[in-house]
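User: Sequence for Lipase chaperone below. Tokens please.
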Amino acid sequence: MRWRLAGAAAIAAAALTIALIWQGADAPLSVSHGAHTTQASSTSLASPPPAAIANPAGGGESPALATTAPTDEAAQSAAARYAHQVTTLREALQAHQDAPGNLRAFFSELARHCDDAQACHALLTEILASYPDTAFAEMVARIQERLPHYEAAMQATVMSTSDPARARFEALHAQREQWLGVEETELMFGQEAAWARYRFDYGDLLQQAAHVPPTQRQQALDTLRQQHFTAYGAALHDLEGRHGAYQHALALQLAGVDDANEQQRITQALRARFFPPNDVAAMTARDQQIARQQETVARYQQALAALEAEFGPLQTQLPAAEWESQYRARLEALRREHFSTP
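Assistant: Structure tokens for Lipase chaperone:
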């Protein structure tokens, strides 16, 4: 089975690419900023209205003067909106520089503010024009220039699901570095790459967990987080979340444990570690509700099997309509008995 990456959506759908790779469904023009830029998008919004036309007859104002004030107001309003847009996006870019590794999110936000590539280029040029870090600004400009080539390469990329998931991801990452540059790829996809490698290594650890002493399993998991989260700690800890960290720890500790009581003890201990008492109580109540539902389903299935055993032979002894009527009546009664809310 083979799959082809979507070119135009390669940037916006990068997280989906990793999800698909993980699930096995599988599965991213170097100029300084300001050069060769079309200025139409920025200047047209801020341009003053045409000069008023004098009345050729010399008597009074031309009718065109009646629309001058509203035109001035519209132009000023458009210029103000554009200036606010530039300021907001420049602040967003600064935030992504301060928390690096996910610059693709900035380019997705930029694309929402312009209609085509030319307009996006002009808008980004305006954003970078007074950006305080010129080296970073030049790198962002290079990324924008290289994106079309990267997207075309992604569109042409075909991979086989018979290849290991990690190998497919690393091949994808290598193409990103080839078309965008190594530093540029780290800026764009660093967080995603760190998370993907953490998940791959966690999968390897989980496969080996049954042969690792319980006290060493959590240490191994903490080591993985330190290894992969170091550069993007806050962002990846937020991505994993408390519930995700609990699920990862729980799966490791339950590996190879078959005793139901021991499973329950481990689960309760980890819940107490990761969640406040109220949440633990709610989770326990939910467990009990699920257990009751499973017991009800099991009893219903047993009763249904008995009903089938009783009515099976009757098919040859009763008229078809009578058998159907009796069977449906008993089946409906059985369902009400087990599933009707008191």
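DSSP finds 13 helices and two strands in the chain.
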